[in-house]
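Section 5: illustrative case.
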């Protein structure tokens, strides 16, 4: 009855998996029916994998899979595409590929490989020819299966090197006695003096007691002296060691032997206690106490010199009461590459459609495509065969290539270059490489290609973001923001999930989101430090990642459950310093920074490590180029109707979400240009945000990598941002294109900027040089308007319609002043005891009011343009800095709260303020973008024909002006060189400062320190250097 129920459940599981995969539309992992070639139909009607035919186990209830008439038959295969193993067919490409795929190895017999090792290779002297590089011989690593490459080795190390005992390996003497086994045999740590304070063993290893060398924990109490002092086998260390259930501990030692070897007439214990009577017991091998079945219940019983020993057969374990044996479910651990079926005392493996079982555990794609390793290496991208035997440079002369991925069906390769700050695309095999994202990037560390939805995801680690574009690099959309330092990325389009690693200053973690950025979830955030690499097992839905701090590789389910170590742990080969990983079949391929290598990790064989590629120059990302890594399922975004981006979604109805590029907003499924948003200088960044319903998203492509951005403004007509950093003026388009340095000479500290959108000029304050200046928006013509009687000019705003300019001054006599936009008719309009540090300044054009923030008194004030009608708007602010007013709301940045706030202007209490952005440091000036601030072409300067500068004045008038050193000619429009006008005096620098050639001032201790602090290098080419 139990067998019938198990079979019924088994059939139900098969049908359930089939219908589940059919429902999801996934072709890659669909379960084959009995009519398909992957399965066999039992006489009783069950479906089993053909791999289980004639394997000695009856998997059909009626045993028809093991009947002699079936097993005696030679399976007939198509001679053109398949090869017969007798009991099954394998792809013809697997014949004579130096890997035994048939159970009896017939696919590798009678092979004429017709291959000799090349001049730079040696043969391994094995039955099937295998060649390895000559440089791998005598290096302390057994690369041949029989260790032939490490025999008869000798080498003379130089005086500064240490010679390892195994192989002909020389290491630096600095590595000797450092607590790490730098020689493969650990000989560099033998005979070392104790120095417990200076050595720390890696995770999974322990110190020897006196010699202080590190050995794997699994080497303890294994009857081999791995420590030079023998402490790993000392009685004190081994006192708590327990033998396995089917083992017996020798009576005079901690040695364990198989229980079946006890009382068998041959001595197996070193103290011979397994064959003699125990001195303190009346039991002996001659007694037979196992006849009393109550001693062991249903378990096996063995007579020993110490009495009876109850035990279970392999594949079973004792129950809680130790009276009977219960089956061990080996499938709870990763023992099979794909599908695992638990059987009484054992287990069986099988493979999903498209794969075939190899060596009882592994699954191999049935196609004939040879897999290829792709590796980025700083200045090049190379490909290699999976054994490292053949390597080629695909793309060279790169600056600093890091992240790498591909689209197999379209034969496209994508990679990032963090030096060029670009994302590139090329066709596999082609030498033509072109940038597809070349603006608004600073540190693109990770990349992942969605080969179904046809989008590219990438991380911007300095900006704490994950962005997405289409395959052409268009329609850039910010998917996730305010992360720490995201690096690794991986997507599973069939499940519509995105996974990422984050190891910034915030809590390091492994995260998962829907591929549209929704439904994000933290999978792992404990016992994790530097999660560098990430890759996915699409078939088994598992996430693998490498932690470069612990030098371990972990795995977890897509749900975040069942975390465990798969490589580098106790009893496993060490993983020196993993950077990137990829998966193919049941092997992880890893780039390593310490040894500058690529190695393969066998997941099903205790994380066994095999070196593949050596002597690399800082290997970075790695991918396995093969169609099995990019199987296809339903594209829910196809024909969905999105005008810009269609993002696969695991949470949205319909499986797809439309998304818009930065600077646009979604209306239905169409993207339209934004009419209003908030722009803020964040010291190291310039950002634009849309705040809506408690959420935020980017309105401009972030400007990253700045040093001290304070002032910012914008121009609607050309969609440009203008900003200072730190003593230069820049502009850039909202989409990140056309970054230009406008002015870089004779600038001190630019604290305020204002764009005149009518006359097309830029005004700014300089707090160090105590000036107010103006220039055309392109920076070509520049002039100082006011240069006297300043304390510390800071914020500045313009009103082109009335031709007036306003600024705040928070020197010894803080005040707010105004003048005409040509610098004439200067007036002090607001001052007094309630004026402290007037920081933010703005104009409400709709009500003709001037608003400002006082950071000393922590309040917001307003007044008329003549300074009259002064009143308090909001009080009890924390520490406000920037301010803008628009559409009935005040927006301000706050240094103390590290936040951006908004409040209605008719509110009188700051308690009713709305927090728009939180936990963001370095907040400076703030501006609200409004699309209406654009000239209609009707202003005094539009027809003035000034040759250099046209400056607006009240009463709809203007003044033509000229750059420094020039004056207006007699025609009132043209500019001529001012012969009698002396060159502007260079501002002097404060004490303990050095004046650069460009008039900048830097601290004198920065002189001749190797850094270009002046930004013209004059501090490094001075005579004092």
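Designed sequence:
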């Amino acid at each position: 009855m139990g067998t019938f129920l198990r079979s019924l459940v088994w059939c139900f599981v098969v049908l359930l998996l089939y219908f589940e995969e059919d429902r999801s539309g996934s072709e890659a992992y669909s379960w084959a029916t009995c009519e398909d070639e992957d399965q066999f139909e039992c006489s009783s009607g069950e479906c089993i994998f053909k791999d289980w035919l004639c394997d000695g186990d009856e998997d059909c209830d009626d045993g028809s899979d093991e009947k002699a008439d079936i097993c005696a038959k030679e399976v007939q295969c198509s001679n053109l595409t398949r090869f017969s193993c007798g009991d099954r067919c394998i792809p013809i490409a697997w014949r004579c590929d130096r890997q035994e795929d048939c159970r009896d190895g017939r696919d590798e017999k009678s092979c004429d490989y017709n291959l000799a090792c090349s001049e730079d290779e040696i043969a391994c002297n094995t039955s099937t020819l295998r060649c390895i590089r000559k440089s791998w011989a005598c290096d302390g690593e057994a690369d041949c299966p029989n260790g032939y490459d490490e025999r008869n080795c000798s080498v003379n190390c130089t005086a500064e090197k240490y010679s390892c005992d195994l192989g002909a390996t020389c290491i630096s003497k600095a590595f000797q006695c450092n607590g790490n086994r730098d020689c493969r045999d650990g000989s560099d740590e033998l005979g070392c003096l104790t120095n417990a304070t200076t050595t720390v063993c890696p995770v999974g290893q322990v110190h020897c007691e006196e010699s202080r060398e590190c050995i794997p924990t699994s080497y303890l109490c294994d009857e081999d002296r791995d420590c030079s002092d023998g402490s790993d086998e000392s009685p004190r260390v081994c006192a708590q060691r327990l033998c396995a259930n089917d083992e017996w501990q020798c009576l005079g030692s901690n040695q364990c032997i198989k229980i079946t070897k006890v009382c068998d007439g041959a001595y197996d214990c070193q103290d011979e206690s397994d064959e003699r009577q125990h001195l303190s017991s009346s039991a002996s091998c001659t007694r037979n106490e196992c006849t009393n079945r109550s001693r062991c219940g249903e378990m096996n019983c063995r007579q020993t010199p110490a009495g009876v020993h109850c035990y279970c057969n392999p594949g079973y374990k004792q129950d809680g009461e130790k009276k009977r044996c219960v089956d061990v479910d080996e499938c709870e651990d990763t023992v099979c590459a794909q599908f695992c079926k638990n059987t009484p005392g054992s287990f069986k493996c099988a493979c999903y459609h498209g794969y075939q079982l190899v060596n009882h555990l592994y699954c191999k794609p049935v196609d004939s495509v040879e897999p290829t390793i792709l590796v980025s290496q700083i200045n090049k991208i190379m490909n290699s065969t999976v054994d490292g035997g053949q390597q080629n440079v695909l793309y060279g002369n790169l600056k600093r290539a890091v992240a790498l991925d591909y689209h197999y069906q379209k034969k496209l390769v994508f990679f990032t270059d963090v030096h060029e700050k670009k994302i590139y695309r090329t066709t596999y095999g082609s030498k033509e490489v072109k940038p597809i994202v070349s603006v608004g990037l600073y540190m693109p560390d990770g990349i992942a290609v969605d080969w179904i939805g046809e989008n590219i995801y990438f991380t911007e680690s300095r900006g704490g973001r994950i962005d997405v574009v289409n395959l052409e690099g268009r329609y850039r959309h910010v998917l996730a923001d305010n992360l720490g330092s995201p690096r690794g990325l991986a997507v599973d389009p069939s499940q519509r999930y995105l996974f990422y690693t984050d190891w910034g200053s915030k809590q390091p973690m492994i995260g998962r989101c829907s591929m549209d950025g929704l439904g994000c979830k933290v999978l792992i955030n404990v016992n994790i430090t530097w999660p560098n690499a990430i890759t996915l097992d699409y078939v088994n839905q598992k996430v693998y990642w490498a932690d470069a701090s612990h030098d371990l590789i972990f795995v977890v389910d897509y749900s975040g459950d069942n975390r465990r170590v798969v490589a580098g742990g106790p009893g496993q080969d060490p993983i020196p310093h993993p950077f990137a990983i990829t998966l193919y079949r049941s092997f992880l391929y890893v780039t390593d920074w310490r040894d500058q290598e690529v190695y393969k990790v066998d997941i099903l064989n205790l994380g066994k490590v095999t070196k593949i590629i050596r002597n690399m120059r800082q290997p970075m990302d790695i991918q396995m180029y093969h169609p099995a890594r990019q199987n296809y399922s339903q594209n829910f975004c196809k024909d969905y109707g999105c005008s810009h981006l269609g993002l696969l979604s695991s949470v949205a109805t319909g499986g797809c979400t439309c998304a818009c590029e930065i600077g646009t907003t979604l209306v239905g499924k169409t993207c339209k240009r934004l009419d209003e948003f908030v722009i803020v200088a964040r010291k190291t960044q310039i950002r634009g945000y849309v705040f809506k319903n408690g959420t935020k998203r980017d309105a401009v492509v972030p400007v990253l990598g700045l040093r001290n951005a304070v002032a910012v403004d914008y121009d609607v007509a050309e969609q440009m941002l203008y900003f200072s950093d730190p003593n230069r003026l820049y502009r850039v388009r909202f989409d990140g294109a056309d970054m230009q340095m406008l002015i870089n000479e004779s600038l001190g500290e630019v604290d305020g900027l204002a764009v005149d959108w009518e006359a097309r000029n830029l005004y700014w304050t300089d707090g160090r040089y105590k000036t107010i200046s103006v220039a055309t928006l392109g920076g070509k013509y520049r002039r100082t308007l006011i240069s006297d009687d300043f304390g510390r000019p800071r914020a500045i705003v313009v009103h082109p319609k009335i031709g007036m300019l306003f600024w705040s001054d928070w020197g010894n006599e803080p005040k707010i002043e105004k003048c005409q936009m040509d610098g004439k008719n200067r007036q002090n309009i607001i001052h007094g005891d309630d004026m402290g540090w007037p920081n933010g300044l703005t104009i409400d054009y709709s009500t003709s009011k001037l608003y400002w923030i006082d950071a000393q008194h922590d309040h917001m004030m307003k007044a008329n343009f003549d300074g009259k009608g002064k009143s308090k708007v909001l009080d009890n602010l924390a520490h406000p800095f920037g301010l803008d007013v628009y559409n009935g709301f005040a927006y301000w940045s706050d240094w103390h709260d590290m936040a951006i706030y908004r409040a209605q202007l008719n509110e009188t209490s700051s308690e009713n303020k709305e927090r728009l952005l939180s936990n963001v440091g370095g907040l400076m000036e703030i501006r609200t973008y409004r699309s209406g601030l654009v000239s209609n072409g009707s202003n005094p300067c539009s027809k003035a024909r000034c040759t250099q500068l046209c400056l607006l004045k009240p009463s709809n008038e203007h003044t033509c002006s000229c750059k420094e050193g020039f004056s207006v000619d007699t025609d009132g429009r043209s500019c001529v060189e001012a012969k009698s006008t002396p060159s502007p005096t260079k501002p002097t620098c404060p004490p303990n400062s050095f004046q650069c050639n460009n008039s900048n001032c830097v601290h004198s201790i920065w002189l001749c320190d190797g850094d270009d602090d002046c930004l013209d290098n004059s501090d490094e080419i001075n005579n004092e250097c």
